[in-house]
Every structure is written in structure tokens, then in C-alpha cells.
Design brief:
This protein is of the alpha+beta class. The chain contains 14 helices and 32 strands. An eight-stranded antiparallel beta sheet has the order 11-10-16-7-8-15-12-13. Strands 2-3-1-4-5-6 form a six-stranded mixed beta sheet, with helices on both faces. Strands 22, 23, 24, 25, 26 and 27 form a six-stranded antiparallel beta sheet that branches.
Length: about 600
């Protein structure tokens, strides 16, 4: 097909603004799915996506649409809306020339709408503004169109008003995609270059690469080279998602599809790599993607009925499908061998844990998440610290730096005071206040990531009765007065329970923490002291009392010395048990570190 008749586009929006529903209507209107196949969130194939009602993975589908007697190929890449899956959106946009920016007609412009729009502009993607959910009684398309114009500079006359649920206006939107969005550049005569924008592993077919052909073409039985690693493979199958995987003989310039080439080694594939013809290779690889910056780190250890090698295999499969997740082997004196994992945010971490357990039938023990820090040592070296256990000796530290983000909160004007109070309590500094309309405002802050990444969003939703939305992006690392809290269980420091906190609330946080640990760790047959230390100084202590067995119950009279002898023997046994007994620390104890509530 000529590139003039191809359109590659994404749907981007804030979470819950109707991306997946709009994709469903488009699939129906173009006849891509039959009435028998119809179901809500059609492109969200993962069970977890359907349960939570959110898109986690970007997914591709090819639709054919007739316009003025010509057939057009529409390649749609549906993207997630949550801030934690920002990287999925950036990868999808790199494979497109256009994007539909969907905004809810009742909610208006939200934090993630703004972030995704700027992401599209950075990728030189043509934007079409779409106002969805016109069928809602609270819909205010005129107000929302003005907000879009005020923030994003897209004229209010150029917005398309639709209802994805009923299908009203979707036909006109399909026409607009053909007439207003640009076609891919015709590079069919240039050497083959195909961008891998996603991949997943199939038990029978091996690794399946999702590709966008930027120049040249790919054919079945063609020998190709993966430019980053230099490995060569023979293509055994090519195809398109229509939406099921449908085999074709050839993928031409501008087209989106999949490549299967008997790739068994997961390490051979890198998302963002370029596939080229082995006989006539491209002179240079496509730009690919900037590596994602993981901001939240947590340790995963094999749980019951799971061994280390099984967990390792599960992680390998997951990194192929999720390029924004990373892991490295890690050993803890308290928990044994496991992995230190990096995530983009807390929801991302939660999803990875659920996918590990569901898709691989394994159990994991997970420590409380921490954010990464930077340390400037006395010899002018900068070290990235992903866990409190990696901190160098305090005498070697010249400067401690924490990650600072630009935080944007969009809320209604009646909750500004309460939100500002919450932000100030978390060491956030207000930079700017901008009124979107008479009832809605956008607040911009410089905020320490460690203070907002855990429960800040939940508190924000509570204060604003569910209306406020937030988005953040990393600015860099800044000097801060931070200290490490050590937790000693039975006088032994437990690395996994260590914390890095701001000095101003270190003591209060430490005291709260061991009270929670005392409740979370079950009683043993011996007394367990819990201590909080900052540097070499113990600042708080709690004690978990031991179980006491009545060893004198079997006595039935006789001399008192028999009783004293038994009690003395029990006391010596307790003393010995205390010195050699191991304390079982449950998962809840690690997670209690997170809870900032009273």
C-alpha cells in the first residue's frame, strides 16, 4: 500500500478519560471486530488491565477504512494514562505521526493530559484535540475547549466533540484522522530500518517483536540483523494485529506489525533497537529511546514454594515485555538471595508484583520501596544510592542529595488552602499558581520525591473529594540534610528495614516505626528488643515479650528447690535461645515502614 494511504496514530489522555472506549468504537466502525467479538476494553488483553479498568501496556491494531472510494490503513497504538506508564506512551508516540488528545467533557484538562500533550510535542507528533463523554449530564464542552486553548494552545474551534460510549461523532473523527493527520514519509527506496517499539514472549514462537517500518520493507524468509547486538536471524513470520495476529508476506514503509524470527534468547532483544536487512544494511540505527529513569527501588526475594532460579526466569520474561523495569541480583544477611528492582513509581511496582505472581505462579517477599539518592564523597565521586545499605561510611560523605521533582496539581479552587497545607507539610515549595477557569487552578511545586511518592496522592484525593489530579517529572538532585535510620532486631541491624529520611523528622519517624514493628512481628519464645539507631546512637527502644511456658505445672508438691531448679534451667534456655534464635520477620513488617499515618 502507498504510504499516502497509511495513518499511524496514538490515543493519549489522562487516566479514565475514555481512550480504550474510543478504541473499541473505532474497531467496530471500521469492521475490524465483529458483533460476536465485541467486549469493553477490547485492546486491554491483560486480565489485570480489565480488573482495574486501566491500560498498562500500549497495544497496536491495524484497521482498514474506506474514504472517498479509497482504502486507508489506520494503525492505532492505544496507550496507558497513568503517570507511572509515561514511558509506554513515549515509545508509542515514537512510532506515530499523529495523536488524538482525549479530554473528558465534564472533568476538563487534567495533570496527565498536559504531560502527554507536551510529550507529543517533543516527539513532533501532530495533535487532534478530542472532547469525549458529551452524553454526560455534567458535560461542558465549551469550557473544556477554552481550557485546552488556554493551556495547550489548540484553538477551541479545532476540537472534535464525541461520545465514545454511544459512538456519536466518532465517524467524523475517523474522517479527520485521514484528512488532518500526516501520512508517513515515503522511504520505500531506502535501506530497511524497522523500529522495535514493544515485544513479548510466546511459549511456542519465541520472542515476538512489535515493529514500525521506517524505511524499506521486511519480507518472510528475509535474513535480518538487529543493529544493537549484531545478531542475525531469518524471518519465519510477519503479520499485523487485526486485532488478532494475522500473518502477511510483507510489511512495507510506514506499516506497523510484528516479526517472528525464532529468537529464543531474551537478552538478544532490546526495545528501541533497529532491524535491518543483512545483505543491504542501513548506515545507522534509528534514534531508539532514552533509557527510562527508575525512581522507586524495592527488593524482591523468593517466597514460599519458589526458588531463586524460577524467580530469575520470571524477571527475564517480564523485562522483555516491560522495558521500564530493571533488576540486579542482591544478597541480604536477613533475607538471603534476591533481586534489587527499579520501577517508575508505586503503581508500576504493584503491577509488576501482581504480574510476577499471576503469570508465573510464584510467591515473592517484597521489602518496602525506597527512592534513589546521590552522595558526593570526600574524593569528589558521585555515587547513586538505591538502598540505605549502599550508603558509604558517614565520615566519607561530603554532601547528601535527594531527588527533586516538578509537581503539578490541578484542583478546584475551594480546596486550594487544604492542598497547600498538605504540600507545605511535605517540604514542597510553591513556584506558580495558574487559574484555568474561575473554578479550576493549576499549582506548580518543587517537591522532594521521597515525600510525595508514597501516600501523597491518596491524601490529595481525600482532601479534594476525588477531584484533584497530579503529575510529576524529575528535575534533578539537590543537597539536603538527610540521615540513615538503622533498625536493630534482637541487636542485629536489618538492612531491609533501614530508611533514609530528613533529619527534621528522623527521630519521630523512627519511634513510630518500631511501635508498628512491635505490632507486626509475632511473639517468639524469647524476648526481642527492637532499637532505632542514627549513626552510633540508639534513640528509641521497644520490646516484644517472649512466650512463657509454665514449666512448674507438672509439679505436685515437694521441696521448693525443685521449682527453683526448673525455673533456673528455663532461664538459661531462654538466654541461649536469645543468642542463637532467629527472628521471623513477616512481609507486613517491611511494608509498615511505608505507612506514614499515625
Amino acid at each position: 500500500m502507498s504510504t499516502k494511504n497509511i495513518r499511524n496514530f496514538s490515543i493519549i489522555a489522562h487516566i479514565d478519560h475514555g481512550k480504550s472506549t474510543l478504541a473499541d468504537r473505532m474497531l467496530e466502525l471500521t469492521g475490524t471486530i465483529s458483533d460476536r467479538q465485541k467486549k469493553e476494553q477490547f485492546l486491554d488483553g491483560m486480565e489485570l488491565e480489565r480488573e482495574r479498568g486501566i491500560t498498562i501496556k500500549a497495544s497496536a491494531v491495524t484497521m482498514n477504512y474506506n474514504h472517498n472510494g479509497q482504502t486507508y490503513m489506520l494503525n492505532l497504538i492505544d496507550t496507558p494514562g497513568h503517570v507511572d506508564f509515561h514511558y509506554e506512551v513515549s515509545r508509542a508516540l515514537a512510532a506515530c505521526e499523529g495523536a488524538l488528545l482525549v479530554v473528558d467533557a465534564s472533568q476538563g484538562v487534567e495533570a496527565q493530559t498536559v504531560a502527554n500533550a507536551y510529550l507529543a510535542v517533543d516527539n513532533n507528533v501532530e495533535l487532534l484535540s478530542v472532547i469525549n463523554k458529551l452524553d454526560l449530564p455534567a458535560a461542558e464542552p465549551e469550557r473544556v475547549a477554552e481550557e485546552i486553548e488556554h493551556i495547550l494552545g489548540i484553538s477551541s474551534n479545532e476540537s472534535f466533540n464525541i461520545s465514545a460510549k454511544s459512538g456519536a461523532g466518532v465517524e467524523e473523527l475517523l474522517e479527520a484522522i485521514i484528512t488532518l493527520l500526516p501520512a508517513p514519509e515515503d522511504k520505500s527506496n531506502e535501506p530497511t530500518a524497522a523500529l522495535i517499539f514493544d515485544s513479548h514472549c510466546d511459549a511456542y514462537k519465541g520472542v515476538i517483536c512489535y515493529v514500525r517500518i521506517v524505511s524499506g520493507s521486511l519480507n518472510v524468509k528475509q535474513r535480518v540483523t538487529f543493529m544493537r547486538g549484531g545478531q542475525s536471524y531469518l524471518i519465519t513470520e510477519l503479520g499485523k494485529f487485526t486485532p488478532e495476529m494475522t500473518a502477511v508476506e510483507k510489511l512495507g514503509t510506514g506499516e506497523v506489525g510484528y516479526v517472528i524470527a525464532n529468537i529464543r534468547e531474551l537478552a538478544d532483544i532490546t526495545i528501541g533497537d533497529t532491524i535491518t536487512d543483512q545483505a543491504e544494511p542501513a548506515t545507522k540505527a534509528l534514534p531508539g529511546y532514552k533509557a527510562p529513569m527508575q525512581m522507586v527501588f524495592s527488593d524482591f526475594y523468593p517466597g514460599n514454594n519458589t526458588d531463586y532460579s524460577k524467580l530469575r526466569t520470571a524477571f527475564d520474561k517480564l523485562t522483555l515485555n516491560d522495558a521500564s523495569f530493571s533488576f540486579t541480583p542482591h544478597n541480604s544477611p536477613a533475607l538471603g538471595f534476591g533481586f534489587r528492582c527499579g520501577f517508575l513509581g508505586l503503581l508500576h511496582m504493584e503491577i509488576v508484583q501482581e504480574r510476577l505472581e499471576r503469570e508465573n505462579d510464584i510467591e515473592v517477599v517484597q521489602t518496602a520501596p525506597t527512592v534513589s539518592y546521590e552522595v558526593l564523597t570526600k574524593d569528589d565521586a558521585i555515587k547513586r544510592i538505591e538502598s540505605p545499605s549502599q550508603l558509604p561510611d558517614p565520615t566519607q560523605i561530603e554532601e547528601f542529595r535527594e531527588p527533586i521533582v516538578k509537581l503539578e496539581i490541578i484542583t478546584s479552587t475551594d480546596t486550594i488552602g487544604a492542598i497547600m497545607k498538605l504540600a507545605e507539610g511535605r517540604r514542597c515549595k510553591l513556584i506558580n499558581t495558574d487559574y484555568l477557569s474561575t473554578t479550576r487552578v493549576i499549582l506548580q511545586y518543587r517537591a522532594p520525591l521521597a515525600e510525595i511518592v508514597y501516600d501523597f496522592y491518596d491524601l490529595l484525593k481525600g482532601i479534594s473529594r476525588g477531584y484533584a489530579t497530579m503529575d510529576y517529572e524529575l528535575i534533578g538532585f539537590e543537597k539536603s540534610d538527610l540521615v540513615k535510620i538503622n533498625i536493630l532486631v534482637n541487636k542485629i541491624p536489618v538492612d531491609a528495614l533501614g530508611l533514609i529520611v530528613h533529619r527534621s523528622n528522623a527521630e519521630a519517624r523512627g519511634r513510630k516505626l518500631i511501635i508498628k514493628l512491635r505490632r507486626a512481628i509475632p511473639r517468639h519464645q524469647f524476648e526481642i528488643p527492637l532499637q532505632v539507631a542514627i549513626g552510633g546512637k540508639i534513640i528509641a527502644r521497644e520490646t516484644i515479650k517472649g512466650f512463657r511456658k509454665d514449666v512448674t505445672a507438672k509439679l505436685y508438691g515437694g521441696d521448693v528447690t525443685r521449682k527453683m531448679k526448673l525455673l533456673k534451667k528455663q532461664k538459661e534456655g531462654k538466654k541461649r535461645m536469645k543468642s542463637i534464635g532467629s527472628v521471623q520477620i513477616p512481609q507486613e513488617a517491611f511494608m509498615s515502614i511505608l505507612d506514614n499515618s499515625e
